[in-house]
Amino acid sequence: MNPRPWWTKLGHGTLMLLAAVYCLFPIYFMLVQSLKTPQEDVFGNPFIVMNPTFENFEELFERKSETRGFVGDALRRSYPFLDWLANTFFVFAGSVVATLVISVAAAYALGRLRPPGFRWWRRAIFATYVIPQTILFIPLFQVVNAFGLDDNLLALLFIYPSMALPFCVWMLSAYFQHLPREIEEAALIEGASRTTAFFRIVLPMSRPVLVAAGIFALGTVASDFMIASVFLLSGQSQTITAGIGTFDVALDELAAVAGVNLMAIPVVAISALFARDYVRGLTAAMVEGA
Amino acid sequence: MRRTQRQRDIRTAYLLMSPAVLLLLTVLAYPLGWEIWTSFTSLSPLQEGGTAFVGSENYRRQFGDAQFWRATAVTVVYTVVTSAAKLALGLGFALLLARPFRGRALVFLAIFLPWAYPSGVSVIGWYWTLNPPTSTAYAPFMGHAKYLVDGVFGGGAWAFVSVTLFNIWRGSSFIGVLLLAGINAIPPELFEYALLESKSPWQRFRLVTVPLLKPFLALAVFLSLTSAFADLANVWMLTAGRIVFPVIGTHAYWLAIKAGQFGPASALSLTLVPFLLGVLFVLFRLFDPPSPEAA
After folding, report:
1. Which A residues, 176 through 235, put their C-beta within 8 Å of a C-beta on chain B?
2. Do A264 and B30 touch (CB under 8 A)?
3. Which of A134, A169, A194 sits opposite B253 (nearest CB)?
4. Which residues contact A56 (CB under 8 A, 6 or more apart)?
5. How far apart, in whole angstroms, are the C-alpha atoms of residue A213 and residue A211?
6. pLDDT tens digits, residue range B83-119?
7. Among the residues of chain B, which ranges form H helices?
8. Average pLDDT for B25-53
């Protein structure tokens, strides 16, 4: 290829910069907000923070779970933030693990063992995405109650996986289907069982696809707002998402933005750590078109 | 021997699939059945007396309702605008990142983050950024923007613009990464060949890149459509429930929760399904064509 002239390079660079600024600006803005003192929030420049402080974050942890009474006309509430943090961690980790285990099992069956009509099974599972979630939570509430899980984190632990599952099964089964047969067959001839061959050979080499499925599941779970706020009603059992939804904007703006960041930072860090494998896994699943 | 092995494999397959199928059945089958049944009845928590079976009444009344057509129009505009913008931006991001250059990993990370940033909470951050409490330093600026937009397009327009921007911001990130993975999945020889055969980058884009990416574009469009059509939480959150421009999702939610009309609300949410099934059918044709290697 001939060397590209300087204006193409400049154009490319400018586009890169624009793309990065467009993507990062809202995140930057929220981060800056959360580091501000109330004074700076009112009088300072909105785009920068002169005296960064962690007091908004600290405030979240200091709060106890009782009502602090009225300040002026407004009810000043407090929040069990530590409970929320623990709940969020429990629900997110549990949902991602459950999604992965269930979808790897189903995907291996569909892509490798290929029962009759496996394509239709796979399509049917993916097709559940056409069911609009809109008011589905009303009957879902009855199901959750029937299991005795109202206002219980466990309810989310079986609703969330169902939201990420269709895409994960689709992706993983496409990957398993295109994995050459010989990979396992060598081990099977050596006398290993299918199970051993799966855990020793197939699973370790599928790392990127598993990561991709896991990151997708995490993204799906973390993007939910509706389910969390409909099913988790009492303060003690809420996740951060559900909890912050109940904040009062005018009174708790800075604390809320701090809460947003506190939840976002670990999720973003984990996703960023695995970002490369995420793309690699998606690619691996897409090779040859699924 | 061979035959029993196959039978055993099939039995294992069903066993391995059962958790996924059972989960989807518990979470979706009963609720969906309930919704379909309810859409033919007058079920309402506010109503005295029993629930009556009303046949297609809910659907017929809905199609004669001006509110319904308004919600449909808004939904269509919202979906088309966001999907087109997401697709254009996403494709742009993917093409920008397709070739190696210095600092690519950083730009990739920047493009990946809007999707990775949990929207369950970032939507709250967006709401407060765009509709700040009056005390904050940038509140006057945002207030001006709000009055400007609302002045031109009517009250509630600013909130709607913010929903649209949020959806595009997050969706373009997801689609960009998805399409980048798609480009990586295309054998490089095809691109090299295209480089020799075609005259202009535009021609190459139109005749090589787009056709090869078609299945992935279709997947992106499908996921974008289902999420935009069903978009309820974002619209609800970013407008704080003060919805001037209802989409089908929020209208159904409002009917069910505020007005207590479960029947019409069910009918309303189900009207989208045939359309989405049509899109899904096209997707399967593109993405999962019946191939001779099928076992």
Report:
1. 194, 215, 219, 222-226, 228
2. no
3. A134
4. A34, A35, A36, A254, A255, A257, A258
5. 5
6. 999 999 999 999 888 877 888 888 898 899 888 888 7
7. 2-24, 30-38, 57-63, 66-98, 104-116, 119-130, 139-153, 157-185, 188-197, 201-204, 210-229, 233-238, 248-253, 262-270, 272-287
8. 81
Contacts made by residues A97-100, CB under 8 angstroms, sequence distance 24+? A98/A157, A98/A158, A98/A160, A98/A161, A99/A160, A99/A161, A99/A164, A99/A165, A99/A168, A99/A213, A99/A214, A99/A217, A100/A168, A100/A210, A100/A213, A100/A214, A100/A217
Which of chain A's residues have a Cβ under 8 Å away from the Cβ of B32? 131, 136
Per-residue pLDDT at A290: 41
* Pairwise CA distance, residues B261 & B263, whole Å: 6
Residue B157 is encoded by which pair of tokens?
């327009």
C-alpha B267/C-alpha B262 separation (Å) is 9
CA distance A175 to chain B (A): 12
Question: φ and ψ at B157, to 5 degrees?
Answer: -65, -40
Contacts of B128 in chain A (CB under 8 A): 249, 253, 256-257
For the record, the structure tokens of B281 come out as: 């059918």
CA angle B154, B158, B159 (to 5 degrees): 115
Q: What is the pTM of this model?
A: 0.87
Identity (one letter) of the amino acid at A13?
A: G
- Which chain A residues touch B9 with a CB distance below 8 Å? 113, 115
Query: How close A275 comes to chain B (CA, Å)?
Result: 7
Model confidence at A56, in pLDDT bands (50, 70, 90)?
confident
Provide the shortest C-alpha distance from residue A66 to chain B (in Å).
23
Rounded to whole angstroms, the maximal C-alpha distance in chain B is 79
Crossing angle of helices A55-62 and A249-273, rounded to 10°:
100
Whether the CA torsion A246, A252, A253, A258 is positive or negative: it is: negative
What are the chain B neighbours of A219 within 8 Å (beta carbons)?
115-116, 118, 174
